Amino acid sequence: MTSEPDSFARRTITEGKPRNIEAALRDNDYPPEIIAALHALRRELASEPIRPPDPTAPGADFWHAQWARYRGRTWLEVPWYFAEAYFYRRLLETVGYFRPGPWQGRDPFAAQKERMLEEAIAPFAASLAALEGQTEDEIAAALIHGCLWGNRADLSNWGMGLSRDAPGQALLIDHTPRLVALLREHHPVVHIIADNAGLELLFDLALTDFLVSRGWARQITLHLKADPFFVSDALPRDVHHTLERLSHEKGEPAARSNALSTRLRHALDDGRFILSAHPLWNSCLTFHDMPPDVRTSLELADLVLLKGDANYRRLLGDRHWPPTTRLEEAAAYFPRPFAVLRTMKAELIVGLEPGQAEALSAEDPQWMVNGRRGIIQVVP
Question: Domain 110-379 belongs to what architecture?
Answer without folding.
Answer: 3-Layer(aba) Sandwich (3.40)
